[in-house]
Amino acid sequence: MANLELLDPFAQDYPETLVTQLAFGHACCLRFNRTGSHLAAGLLDGSAVIWDFLTHGPVRTLKGHTRPINSVSWSRCGRYVLSAARDWKLVLWDLQDGSRLHTVRFEAPIWGADMHPSNHLICAAALFEDKPCLVDMSSGKVVKHVLPTVPLRSQEDIEGMTEKQAASDASQQTLVTIWDKSGNYILSGTSKGWINIIAYPSLDIVKSIRIGNTNIKHMRLSPSGRELVLNPADRVIRTIQLPDLATVTVETEIEIEYKFQDVINRLQWNAAAFSQSGDYVLAASHKRTEIYIWERASGTPLVKILEGTREELVDMDWHPVQPLVVAAGLEQGVIYVWAIPQAENWSALAPDFVELEENVEYEEREDEFDIVDDEELNKRKAVNEDEDVDITTIDQRELDQEGFRIPVILEKDEELIQVEHVQSPVRPRTVKSSTKDVNSGLKRKR
Fold first, then answer.
1. Beta-strand relationship, 89-94 and 80-85
2. Dist. CA 372–CA 362, nearest whole Å
3. Tens digits of per-residue pLDDT, 125-172?
4. Alpha carbon distance 333, 422 (integer Å)
């Protein structure tokens, strides 16, 4: 992000074309850190790779899982990464040396986990056919707290409920959990189309919102934390304008802001997200190779369809600073990068550089090509060599706000070797039936 000041503030603010690909194993899930300097990718073989997005090279490989990773999450400082996988484990990594700080084991595979925005030792996890958990590692020991799933209804709704409705509420499962920007609330989506707003640390539901009757597969907050995008199984992407959650009660009305869908093809969606400004909503189509981008201000115009891949896309993320999108392919696990092609503007880097439209006659200076004596050259080199060059001190102004930068590994790292693509694809979370049909083979015999 060193040349951020050179970007045109009035340029197009959404990506245009496929510019490059990143290949290292079979990527299943992706997430940028807060500054966009690094990208975390969970792989099919249970490894996680940290990419330096300036050089497009891997700087860390984290091996701690035996099954595909379902989600990765960053701490605010960019030093810690949380990975959740289908091997029933949650691992907290320290990128300072690539070590494991904590490994948490559950009694079921993990749909996904999200790290607390200001405390990397606290996270919320959604489990397959089990109750969601809040995991607290602050004391040095792993403490699990069960999160509620049954939606909170008003007194009027409770009085008019039938036994069938009560049984339906009790049978719900939480499929996704995320933190709000303040870290005081957890937002969870259920298999019956409810969103529960859970207060932290009391872990009580303060508000439940009914979106529909189908699974809520994904939820993402905008960078400002004031908007929420939902990806239910009913083929309609929804956005919600969140009020101040500290003032929300059971009676507070929270309505859908906009709905986005492919009216002609009636496509399912594998993932949904916001742009870095929150002005656009993007979604990866199911069993298709495109990413759709809508403008959120008006709620209807489809401004761009990102194409160029030959495989379905299972997860994606928008860069926190630039108009750039990354997505992971289903069959090969390649990471595709869409951006705006940048034309070379040398005058921006060298103010005295002049671009010529046609050949001109050049007049050389009188001493421009004079031969310099070898003794004079040696004297100049000797003067320059006497200057001490500091190659160890890091300028603090170049660091992130929290002052952490992933150290460079100088010696050869045998782990940074190209991993062969695994041919068996990871199909995204099912949307055709209840969660009991999802990954049924993962359920361990008890």
1. antiparallel
2. 22
3. 999 999 999 999 999 899 999 999 999 988 888 888 888 888 988 899
4. 8
